[in-house]
Specification:
It contains 11 helices and 12 strands. With 503 residues, it is α+β, with helices and mostly antiparallel strands. The chain folds into 3 domains: 160 residues, 2-Layer Sandwich (Beta-Lactamase), CATH 3.30.450.20; 94 residues, Orthogonal Bundle (Helix Hairpins); 157 residues, Heat Shock Protein 90. The strands form 3 sheets. A 5-stranded antiparallel beta sheet has the order 2-1-5-4-3, sandwiched between helices. Strands 7-9-10-12-11 form a 5-stranded mixed beta sheet. Strands 6-8 form a two-stranded antiparallel ribbon. A hairpin with a 5-residue loop joins β11 and β12. α2 packs antiparallel against α5, α6 packs antiparallel against α7 and α9 packs antiparallel against α10. The chain is rod-shaped.
Length: 503
């Protein structure tokens, strides 16, 4: 559980904004520090290099005329020593080379900093060459310069064959560079911390309207359609808030109109059903009389009388169903709970309708399974399920009643009604409890109003139970009702909000 929660937290907009700001700040800080370091390092080394080369060239040009040419070894040694003493630093080391002769300012100095490539470059280019090298961890600047001279009436400078090389330690300059690196590193951490702080502040400013939008959306989803957002500014988030308010207003208007129309339709159905009950009662009384006298009438008249009687009965049942549905919609359906023997109640339902010989029952012994239910509504549930199995399924029809314990320890009653027909088509299964739904558009009116299973579902839900439909592997459909029947469920079921209630 922690891993998905952590992944969701890491993928949140706040984290992404903070990470984006931090990355931008880090890249900017590191880039700026790198450029600053490069420019400062170049400036420090360039200044040191220019100073050394200028001093070196000036010293060589000053001393060369004082020595005879071509020089002997002793002359080269004196020349190298004199050049080394002319530096602003005491760490100058000089190598003087003339053809096969060479001499250093320090006796026995191997001059390891000087590479063959640099010597070849000085010899070939006849120009001052410099190179930074590191030997034994110590940085140094190596400068090589050919000595040239111009004869009388000559303008070009010809090589004299004398080459002078200088090595100057760069330890002090490297210290400056190291100090610069340390300063940049120290400045990077506060810069990143400041960037993260700014990122948090920016994310908070950006996410505040987003969080408000989320709360408003959740409020709309919970049914509070009058929810609106306070709009600040004129940016994209403000436009989004405007759009949300307009959408919420349009939705509230549409839902209000739909509720008004729905309430009107319910009132109409209830009023029509109520108004039909009086003439239907009179018609039923008349058809009862006609049924008694039908045996003495001619065949055509008797058939017409029986047809009128059957249709009047169906119309009365439809009106009663509509009245029942109207009570559910209005939230007026009430439970009248009683502690009864469930098996006896089911057996009485079957006996009243003459189904005891038709339906195969599996009922517990009298007194074994008792529960607090509404007897009238349980009668409606069982009658509708059995009637549906007889009408749309095939014999034999099985009814089974048994008790079970829920995971929390509460007692439940389970009623299963199964038929042996072809079962329920898969495309019909999601709609079996819908009102007026018929899987076959060509089904005749005599096959029911389409309200029986809807009323069953409402009665079961009113008890706090569940009802579901499925197909059996061996064929046929099975409807399973689960009702809580323990005394501890009485108060909970009585307080359960009913469909159609308005908060």
């Amino acid at each position: 559980m922690r891993a998905p929660r952590l992944l969701r937290a890491l993928s949140s907009l706040r984290v992404r904004l903070v990470v984006a700001f931090a990355l931008v700040a880090a890249v900017a800080t590191v880039t700026t520090g790198a450029f600053t370091f490069r420019e400062a390092r170049t400036g420090v080394l360039q200044q040191s290099q220019d100073t050394v080369i200028e001093d070196f060239r000036e010293r060589v040009d000053t001393l060369v005329p004082n020595y005879r040419f071509p020089p002997a070894r002793s002359d080269l040694e004196s020349f190298a020593s004199d050049v080394a003493r002319g530096g602003r630093s005491d760490n100058w080391r000089v190598l003087a080379v003339y053809r096969e002769l060479n001499a250093t300012s320090v006796t026995g100095d191997a001059f390891r900093e000087l590479s063959p490539a640099m010597r070849e470059s000085v010899h070939a280019r006849r120009a001052t060459v410099f190179q930074r090298v590191t030997v034994d961890g110590r940085p140094s600047l190596v400068v090589g310069m050919p000595v040239t001279f111009a004869g009388q009436y000559r303008t070009e400078r010809r090589a004299s064959g004398l080459e002078v090389y200088l090595t100057v330690p760069q330890t002090e300059e490297q210290g400056y560079v190291d100090a610069l690196v340390t300063a940049i590193e120290r400045a990077t951490v506060p810069a990143l911390a400041l960037a993260v702080l700014l990122a948090l502040l920016a994310a908070r400013g950006v996410l505040r309207p987003v969080r408000a939008l989320r709360r408003a959306t959740r409020s709309i989803a919970e049914g509070r359609l009058d929810t609106r957002l306070t709009v600040h500014g004129s940016d994209e988030l403000a436009d989004l808030s405007h759009t949300f308010n307009e959408t919420a207003a349009a939705l509230e208007e549409s839902v209000t109109e739909l509720r008004r129309m729905e309430a009107g339709a319910r009132r109409f159905a209830a009023d029509v059903s109520h108004e039909l009950r009086t003439p239907l009662a009179a018609m039923s009384a008349v058809t009862d009389v006609l049924d008694e006298d039908a045996a003495g009438l001619d065949d055509d008249t008797a058939m017409a009388v029986r047809l009128i009687s059957e249709e009047t009965t169906k119309l009365a049942d439809l009106v009663n169903d509509l009245m029942e549905i109207s009570r559910f919609d209005a939230g007026a359906a009430a439970l009248h709970l009683d502690d009864i023997d469930l098996a006896e109640c089911v057996r009485r339902t079957l006996a009243t309708r003459g189904w005891l010989q038709t339906v195969h029952t599996g009922l517990p012994e009298p007194g074994v399974l008792r529960g607090r239910v509404d007897p009238r509504r349980l009668d409606v549930v069982v009658a509708n399920l059995v009637a549906n199995a007889l009408r749309h399924g095939a014999l034999p029809v099985h009814l089974r009643l048994h008790g079970q314990q829920e995971a929390g320890g509460r007692r439940q009653a389970v009623i299963e009604v199964a038929d042996s027909g072809e079962g329920i088509p898969e495309d019909v299964m999601p709609h079996v409890f819908d009102r007026f739904y018929k899987s076959d558009a060509a089904r005749t009116r005599s096959e029911g109003s389409g309200l029986g299973l809807a009323i069953t579902a409402e009665n079961v839900r009113l008890h706090g139970g569940t009802v579901r439909a499925a197909n059996r592997p061996q064929g046929g459909a099975v409807f399973t009702v689960v009702l809580p029947v323990g005394p501890e469920d009485t108060e909970r079921r009585a307080a359960r909000p009913r469909k159609g209630d308005r908060s």
